[in-house]
């Protein structure tokens, strides 16, 4: 069963952990010096927050977390059917987890990830330049939309 994912950038991790723990009625399932995650069943959501120097505050990206390779293939098919450039990141370490993921941005530049988590990691990790996906919205109407290619390290989650 798929799980909705929301990642929010925050300015004060401790205050945000206290706020969201009260809101959700639960402590985070993962807490690191710069990151926290709640794996909630009601509603079924993977809600993560992080505090990174210079990172934007507020909703960073949305996503769909799957439980197995069959669901991942199904969601990857949906990304392709959406008709937007897809950044296939593949196997990665991000947000203290090992995952396989791909990224897409909607016509207004809202970035989405689709991912399958296979294990934990001891480091936050890195991810692709998501701005390239969001900026593809401006070029999507043009004749020469930019190629979304190999990922570079910048931001991420999962």
From TrEMBL:
Ranges for domain VOC: 2-117
Superkingdom: Bacteria
Pfam families: Glyoxalase
Signal peptide as annotated in the record: none
Name of this protein: ArsI/CadI family heavy metal resistance metalloenzyme
Organism listed in the record: Novosphingobium aquiterrae
């Amino acid at each position: 069963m798929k799980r909705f994912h929301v990642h929010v950038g925050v300015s004060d991790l401790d205050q945000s952990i206290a706020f969201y723990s009260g809101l959700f009625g639960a402590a985070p399932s993962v807490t690191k010096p710069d990151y926290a995650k709640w794996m909630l069943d009601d509603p079924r959501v993977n809600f993560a927050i992080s505090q990174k120097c210079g990172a934007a505050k507020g909703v960073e990206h949305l996503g769909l977390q799957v439980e197995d390779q069959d669901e991942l293939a199904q969601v990857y098919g949906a990304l392709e059917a959406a008709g937007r450039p897809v950044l296939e990141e593949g196997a990665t370490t991000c947000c203290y987890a090992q995952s396989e993921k791909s990224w897409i941005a909607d016509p207004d530049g809202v970035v989405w990830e689709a991912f399958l988590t296979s294990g934990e990691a001891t480091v936050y990790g890195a991810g692709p330049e998501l701005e390239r996906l969001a900026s593809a919205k401006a070029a999507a109407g043009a004749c020469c939309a930019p190629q979304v290619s190999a990922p570079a390290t910048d931001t991420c989650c999962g």
